[in-house]
Amino acid sequence: MERLAKILAQAGVASRRKSEELILAGRVKVNDVIVKEVGTKVTSDDIITVDNKVIDKAPLFYYLVNKPTGYLSTTSDIHKRRNILDLFSPEEKDIRLFPVHKLPYDAAGLLILTNDGDLTKKLTLKDSGVKQEYILRVKGIVIKDKIRQLRLGMKFDDLLFKPVGVAIVELDKKNQSTLLKILVQDFSLSDMEKCFEAMGHKIKNITRIGFDHLTLEGVERGSYRPLKVHEIKQLYRSDMAS
């Protein structure tokens, strides 16, 4: 059995919180009976309606995408720019999918898309513990002293930015840029961008190559694959309350 609000969220009716508001407003029925208890649990056999319209209990989908630059991580855009769903087959584009930890338009790499609201919430909490690995090209030559300083932690805007690991991959003296590999935990891309800007090394381009235990192995740029059951379970790590 699952909580009614969770089923509504998974079906794409609304977010979990908004689904609870629909329940409290008496707009949701289970087997033709109005339900106003947000803790109500339902089975796969129950017929659920919202405003007298039967909802489809959507199955859960999980995809790993190797996002190219020039694509929005969002699934729609008023300016009609290319978005991540444009990489999917026509059948899969109809699934209501949402990105986890979006990548900017001009960034590339590993992106997870799912319609599992609970997993999305778990992975996007500020203290989720999720590690993300990036390859960065930054302006200027980063000297070893700055790398040592970064390993100890850089403080700016009342935030101590301290990566789990950072290493120089390549020094391009001709074009005055440095290629870095960096592993962070519980820091956003915005945090990282601000940190390197404060160091005097603005990020030129960025690619996410790892998310938790997941990598881009076997997934070419612009392609995707469904996550395997054991990969999904590892993302959850522990059972969550239904």
Question: Describe it for me?
Answer:
The protein is 23% helix and 31% strand. The chain is α+β, with helices and mostly antiparallel strands and 242 residues long. The protein folds into three domains: 2-54, Roll (Structural Genomics Hypothetical 15.5 Kd Protein In mrcA-pckA Intergenic Region, Chain A), CATH 3.10.290.10; 62-126 and 216-236, Alpha-Beta Plaits, CATH 3.30.70.580; 131-211, Alpha-Beta Plaits (2-Layer Sandwich). Strands 7, 8, 9, 10, 13, 14, 15, 16 and 17 form a nine-stranded mixed beta sheet that branches. Helix 1 packs across helix 2 (16-24). The protein is elongated, with a radius of gyration of 21 Å. It starts with a strand and ends in a 6-residue tail after the last helix.
Produce a short descriptive summary.
The chain is α+β, with helices and mostly antiparallel strands and 242 residues long.
CATH architecture of the largest domain: 2-Layer Sandwich
**Helix tally?**
7
- Approximate shape: elongated
Poorly predicted segments:
none
What is the secondary structure topology, with strand pairs?
Elements: E1 2-3, H1 4-10, H2 16-24, E2 28-30, E3 33-34, E4 41-42, E5 48-50, E6 53-54, E7 62-67, H3 90-93, E8 98-100, E9 108-114, H4 117-124, E10 131-139, H5 144-152, E11 154-156, E12 159-161, E13 165-172, E14 177-185, H6 189-198, E15 203-211, E16 214-215, E17 224-226, H7 229-236
Helix pairs in contact: 1-2
